[in-house]
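Protocol step 4 of 6: structure prediction from sequence.
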Amino acid sequence: QVQLAESGGGLVQAGGSLRLSCAASERTLSRNNMGWFRQAPGKEREFVAAITWSGGNTYYADSVKGRFTISRDNAKRAVFLQMNSLKPEDTAVYYCAATSADFRLYLRAQYDYWGQGTQVTVSS
């Protein structure tokens, strides 16, 4: 079973940057596609970004395109989310997730494993 642990969240002013990390417990991470989702208070968990196991393809929600970058280091069993030009509406708990699916990586239901989440708060 893959266990995931996020880190790097915190409080930042609007316009600032944060880099989230997701560490996996198993070597099998290298064969999983990975995603980042977020959930704001009172809202549904929504897709943020995804990356294929090779790192060759990335996908982003329109709301973060051009500001966020997803990447991975399979040797370190880690996935990252670089977040720039942060806005107050980016405030949420951010989750990383792993999937063996190869399509519709924007769908929450495609993911088999989830981390506990890390809080990101952007002040105006």
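Step 5 (inspection) to follow. The first strand starts at residue 4 and ends at 7.
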